[in-house]
Amino acid sequence: MKLEIISNINMDSLKFYMKDYSFLSSSSFGNYMIDLVDSNSLLSKSESDIIIFFLDLDVLNENIDELIKALDKFTSETNKTIIINTMCYTPYYIDTYLHKSLEIELNINIKLLNYSRKNSNILLLDFSKLIKQNNFFDEKYWYLARIKFSKTGFELIAKEVRGIINTYKNGSKKVLVLDMDNTLWGGVVGEEEIVLSNEGIGKIYLDFQVKIKKLKELGIILAVCSKNNFEDGVKGLNHSSSILNEDDFIIKKINWNDKASNIKEIIGELNLGDDSIVFIDDNPVEREYVKSILPNVIVPEFPTNIYTLNRWFLSVINDNFSKIILTKEDLKKQIQYTAKKNRNIFSKNISYEKFIKSLDIKIDFYINDYQNIERYSQMTQKTNQFNLTTKRYTVLEMKNFIDSDNHTVIAVSYKDKFANEGITGLVILNHKTELIEIDTFLLSCRILKRGVEKTIFNKLDLLYPDKVMAGKFIPSSKNMMVRDLFLDYNFFRIDDYNFIKNGR
């Protein structure tokens, strides 16, 4: 991934702490406002994937409204993704009027926040969180080289930038798997009264559960994995003081099996990759074993000082569960996976063909519809298995497709008798010529093997009955399941990657 740093202070040291990225230099120091509005500037033509805008409020002279206007013009013409820091005065600023600096900061950051919500190409870096850290600044560097930040400061900035890039590129983790004894509560539920209350150490665990509950509300799937008698575990989950209860957890592996095997079963039942999982356990032996068997599962170190539990958990959330975009489908994850579990139970009792027919599947199509445009972009970023080309598109690029006379965007929604899965399929067509080219064809893993792709191809035949249609398969490490999809639906192979189908 190619990055670019634009700043009004010396930020060259950041490159040292992000050596695994390639950095370009398309804008000279201090000329960013001119480069943003000039369509022919080197910055506008840059091959960078992400531009990091780091602006120091102490020396920022431009009106924030002018800056936002320039950013808006730049992103609309280039589709570039920009990371920009929130504005905070540093200790070097002299505030001659009580609270004036606070007023300026608030006004600027409210405008930046509102702008980022309207433009998904703008990602915010929370600088106020970083500035509070010890040893963030170094006066020696400032006076010798006009470098404001210490080694610690640059390390923290680099970590924050990496987190934003990883979330943007890969999305957040999907599942939080939790141990119970001395993790969700204090003590061992099968042996003693557990510690969970509104005071003292019990309040630590209660606050921990509040944060977990919030993750569930944001679409993160919860599961438990605990060595316990099942009845004791459920008793703990339904404790009178508990914020969480057994219904908050999609899957409950409460038994005496090793935890790696239990987590493998959780992964299989949810049909997700092991890199979607975060596992939290107070026991270092259990953590090490899971890491050795499932190296792609994130297993954070549990704090040895229980009083720091909630501060530690906030860092786990920030590192693994931050979201760039929150869609309606994200908020329905709990319902969707509960329905999935029910489907699996139901399917075990009848043949697969009868099972599919019994689902009462209803599929709807939305053509060039803006309503769920953020979801469209999200699917291109996250869908890997049933994705013929694995092309990734921003919200702005999706909007440009919809607005274009040369493209058609077809979204697919799915529901059955168990749940409404929402927008779970996407097709982007390019028809610059008489030929209809399938630029993108993807389906969420939640609805695979239910005949949805057949319904989509039938729809395409109805929309373009007399057109020649072309499709491309671009192989990746994860999408080999669809390499022969076009052949299955009456396309002819031109070469290894290209296929064509004549109209009626």
Structural account:
The chain has about 500 residues and is an alpha/beta fold. It folds into three domains: about 1-170, Rossmann fold; about 175-320, Rossmann fold, CATH 3.40.50; about 350-500, Aminopeptidase (3-Layer(aba) Sandwich), CATH 3.40.630.30. The chain has 19 helices and 16 strands. The chain has helices at about 15, 30-35, 65-80, 100-120, 125-130, 140-145, 150-170, 200-215, 230-235, 260-270, 285-295, 310-320, 330, 335-345, 350-360, 375-380, 395-405, 450-465, 485-490, and strands spanning about 1-5, 20-25, 50-55, 80-85, 120-125, 175-180, 220-225, 250-255, 275-280, 360-365, 405-415, 420-430, 435-445, 470, 490-495, 500. Strands 10-11-12-13-14-16-15 form a seven-stranded mixed beta sheet, with helices on both faces. The protein has a five-stranded parallel beta sheet with strand order 2-1-3-4-5, sandwiched between helices. A four-stranded parallel beta sheet has the order 8-7-6-9, with helices on both faces. Strand 1, helix 1 (about 15) and strand 2 (about 20-25) form a beta-alpha-beta unit. Helix 8 (about 200-215) packs parallel to helix 12. The longest helix is centred in the first third of the chain and has 20 residues, at about 150-170. The protein is flat and about 70 Å long. The two termini are about 45 Å apart. The model has no long low-confidence stretch (mean pLDDT about 85).
Give the structure's gist in a few sentences.
The protein is an alpha/beta fold. Helices cover 39% and strands 17% of the residues.
